[in-house]
Amino acid sequence: MFANLLSALTGHRHEETLPEPDAAMALGALLVRVAKSNLSYRVEEIRRIDRLLAKIHDLSPVDAAKMRATCEKLEKRAPPTEIFAELIREGVDFDDRLQALEAMWQVVLADGKQSPEQTEIVTRAQHALGLSEADNLTARTRAKQAR
After folding, report:
1. Average pLDDT over residues 10-36
2. Is residue 72 part of a domain?
């Protein structure tokens, strides 16, 4: 409480300590980045991210929302998309990387409006994940079917 009061009076902000990004947090932050890349972070995208995090990590809806909130904070301080994607590539096998790419496409398609900015981030992530164009097509097709 005193730290908050002191920071308010002095103008110094206390930065919240965030966890080091592992593959799970990196994926969450990438999903947030994809959703925000067109400068519109819609409720449909937030719900989709929560559902994906719950499914992928076997979390309750509340825990998935908490994880997304942490991922939103991580995304603000995040390194370039390629570095996050490399964390995922180094931490998971091919099938999980393909699932991560599919999750990104699900976020892109969540609000029914695909922007060039979102496509660009997914494409950069796809390359950093070490996935081919054929893998990208597979992930996108699965994402469309999951809607």
Report:
1. 77
2. yes
Contact 20, 84 (CB under 8 A): no
Please report whether residue 16 resides in a domain. Answer: no
Helix axes 116-128, 81-91, angle to 10 degrees: 40
- CA nearest neighbour of 47 among 102, 125, 106, 115: 106
> Is the predicted pLDDT of residue 1 greater than 80, yes or no?
no
Domain that holds residue 108: 23-146
Q: Is the pLDDT of residue 15 over 70?
A: no
Burial group, residue 102, by CB count within 10 angstroms (0-12, 13-18, 19+): buried
CA distance 38 to 35: 7
Tell me whether residue 9 is in a domain. no
pTM exceeds 0.90 for this model: no
Looking at the structure of the chain, the number of domains it has is: 1
User: Is 17 within the bounds of a domain?
Assistant: no
